[in-house]
Task: inverse folding
């Protein structure tokens, strides 16, 4: 049986993920929560540019309509 996208996010809770946004921005952090719109809450997050951390956040909310992909 195939996993649905939200099932995969549920398995990734409390684990590190990378979220790529429209416009090329990327964020890495520990997935603490999500909703049906794929809005994400990341703790200990950092913004990445060319794979290098450029800014850190203690907690970050990423709007689901800006997400291109989430990689566990």
Result:
């Amino acid at each position: 049986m195939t996993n649905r996208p939200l099932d995969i996010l549920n398995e990734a809770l409390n684990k590190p993920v990378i979220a790529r946004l429209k416009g090329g921005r990327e964020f890495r952090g520990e997935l603490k929560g999500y909703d049906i719109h794929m809005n994400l809450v990341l703790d200990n997050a950092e913004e990445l540019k060319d794979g290098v951390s450029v800014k850190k956040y203690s907690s970050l909310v990423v709007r689901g309509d800006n997400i291109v992909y989430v990689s566990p």
